Amino acid sequence: MAASMSATRNLGNAGKSLNRNDNATFEQEQDANSALSDLDRGLHSMKTGVQCESIVRFPRLFEKYPFPILINSALLRLADVFRGGNNFIRWCILRVTQQSEKHLDKILSVDEFMKKIVSVYYSNDPIARAVTLRTLGSISSIIAERKNVHHIVVISLDSHDAVEVDAAVFAAGKFSEQSKTFAANICNKISEMINGIATPVELKLQLIPVLRHMHHDICTAAKARAVCMSLLSSYPAENFSMLTLQTLTHLAAQSLVDIPDQVSLLLDHLVHKDPRRAVKVVALQQLRKLAKIAPHLWKYSFIQILSRFILSTPYAALKIGGLHVLTTLSKSVAFQIFFITEDVDSSLLEVCTLCYQHSDPTLVSKSLELYTSLAIAYSKSKGSVWLSGQNIVEDAMIALQTQTILGSSCENKAHEQEALKLCLSCVIKLVQTHPDTGESFVSCITNLLEQSQEPSSSMLCECLAAIGSQNSKVLQTSALLQVLSLLTKVSQSQENLPRFGTTLCTLVFQAAEGNPVPDHVKDLVLTCVQETDPWRGYQVARQAMRYGQSAIASKIFASLAQKVSSEHFYFWLMGLHDIGSGESCLQERRCKNFEVLSTIMDASLHYQKGLTLLKAASTPNFPLQFQCEYVNLRVDMMQVHSQLIRTCNTFRTCPPPAIATALAITNGQEITRCGQIVNQLMKCVREYEDLSTRFADLYKTSFDADPESLKNIHQLQMSCELMKLAILSITQDAQDGQTMFADKLMFCSGDASRGKGDKFSQQLQTIHKVLDTLIQTEGVQKITHKHTEFLSESAESLTRVPNCFPRFFFQSLQSTALKLAVSPQQNSSLDPVSIQYDTHLTLKVEGVVQHGSCPGLFRKVHAVKMEVISNLQSKNPTGPETKVTDPTSNSLTQTVEPHNDYFSISFLLSFPVFGIHSVSITASIVDETGTVWNTGPKVNLFVKSYDDAIQRAAQSKVPARPSFSPLIS
């Protein structure tokens, strides 16, 4: 029972990681008006606790219904409560405004809202005035240019109440950030207060950060910078110096014109002017900030100064801070520019050698990160690995191996584990840019696995898996025997499969490269999974599906299906079991040609059963649309391949009749001799083309998919295109065949760079090369048995290549969805929206972009494309004659960029023809590269076009009901 509950819990987490939004997105929807009414009743309660409870629920309401009408109404009600409530209630409302900052621009009645808030400022309570000032500062984005509010803030700066002055400083900073006018006017006031003798020190420290927002124009920025520079000399205290340097950095980063001067100033304080460690730490932090914002504005002399400081300072914390700055720069374009334009000395390499001179793991790991970034940047810019007579890539590799050996044997302290993790990430980056280093790293890490303990062993295994995902060949040559030995020890232990055991299984799958593993290895993996936690077993099965080991995955899924209590999880696991069984049919049966069709039929039956179970596992919250469509396309692809094989078999069993030769001689085209087979092949071409289009459609709907998943879909689409072009190249005459052959060469050359050596891409390249040779030797003037054998073998080989299921099939690392609200709406009885035929319907579409826990991980929403299409469904027979020029449909498209994840678009639609019209509103996402993703949703409504005059005339013709008196008489 405990195992069943554990499986339910863990597999539930697996199901939740499928293609969907977060749980909050799928909560039971409550009508916005009723939700607002419930909160409004709480606001009018006589109990302060009930009022506060209602107030703190407003931010959640805004996130759930982020539409202007509701937000405007809700905030006006909160403003009324703010005006009449006590200070604690006002403080709660202040928190609401701060948490709902991105929704403030949706307030429609800004003046009314502001007046209700400002009215509290004129009370005699300084606390109330302070809360009001902070509230005004929090909503400064929508009232930035209100002169009366500016006046209130300036007056409050001269208040005798400390709480009110603190609030005024807060408001001054907010308004300076939003308003150019306020920033220019308040700059002198802030300067006078800072330099004033009567101003307390604590207040001066609060006023200095206000100057960081004086960047709206050059004059104001220069004035603010001059004030801060004078403060550095006038107030040399530690807290003043640190705060002033931070303010100057922020000011330079926003204005961009003073960044080189600011870098020089920070380096001056770091090296010469200020000996205090705290100030040096702040200077390094600000240097790193400028390195992130504008690395291209740094000079090589700055790098030299910083390198000398790192080598000379005796403090490890300062060395680490300096390494942070250099590492940030080395990952940018700055170092590549330096390597091209400057004569780089050996000081940078001396900094990198700190990894050999210190025992601090954090310092060592940061120096290794710099070493790795330096090697990558230098080889990219120079095309060479030799710097100052040293092979920088080889030196970095040796340093990384040394630290990996030391780090894997250290104690399980947090900072040591973080250092090892950073070191291994550098290993992965170096192998990505220099694949020749992979074998050496794999050999080193594999030898460490037997002696290492958790969590170091897990990190080492994950590093091996990352290298194996780039080049699985190195695992076969350098790691497979040790991995199998470790896996055997894990299977013999009585404990559950540890975390690194799952990764060991993944390494075995990677090394197999899609080929069926030997039976003893398969039994070894199944033994490890048998007694372990169900969640670990699910992870192993999922990895097996992703690396083409469907036979192993099928057995694991079948055993896990008996350990869950939810029927949806059961259907999901059994569906995966049948899909894996179908794939294993294709992989395990190395059959002759006459058995291929029966094999494909058996696999299709398993796939169809799995597809049915996946549909049964889907719920409104987890529709599994991608999974079902992917499996459906896989089934259809196998059917098309089998149809092509049957067509080629037909050519063998039913050769052209004798008269076909005479007809071909008469027509002058030898290929017409095979008219029947050509027609069947052209039917296969149409089916491949349809499959390719459907794969492209699936690609366009997978906005949240990771790049490898998209690559998988693209490869399947390209396989359809390759088979289509191969058939067309063979069935065309000589002239057309050359054209198709040129197209095929363009296709293959474009796809060759995407393969990265995986088995599917290798098979596509093999088909391409064989087709190239075949056309050059046999020609395309007539179809021969060699042509049909090539097509049949190509289709058969594509069915036997193991299908590695994409990661997006099991989990989505980013989640994005559009939520639409359309007005006017149909009523609850779904009656059509009525409109006069001679007027236009204003269709307003509001929407919000909803994100998961990792927004923008792979791609970001740049804009939303809305398409509205209307069509006449049924014409009203009682209406007038329709003119030929009267349009019966509308097709409009607009693109809008969301602001704070909100967007609004309006369309004008005309319906001059009487009757019922259907209107379809479809949303698509446009990413930052301009690619359109057809993610949906799609909203439909019906519109009734009518004429009042005709309706009244029709009603007047209806005979009146007779009264009782005539009937009696």
UniProtKB/TrEMBL annotation:
Residue ranges of domain Integrator complex subunit 7 N-terminal in the record: 36-549
Name of this protein: Integrator complex subunit 7
Species: Sinanodonta woodiana (Chinese pond mussel)
Primary localization: cytoplasm
Family: Belongs to the Integrator subunit 7 family.
Keywords: Cytoplasm, Nucleus
Domain Integrator complex subunit 7 helical bundle: start-end pairs: 551-727
Database matches in PANTHER family: C1ORF73 PROTEIN, INTEGRATOR COMPLEX SUBUNIT 7
Compartments where found: Cytoplasm; Nucleus
Domain Integrator complex subunit 7 C-terminal: 819-933
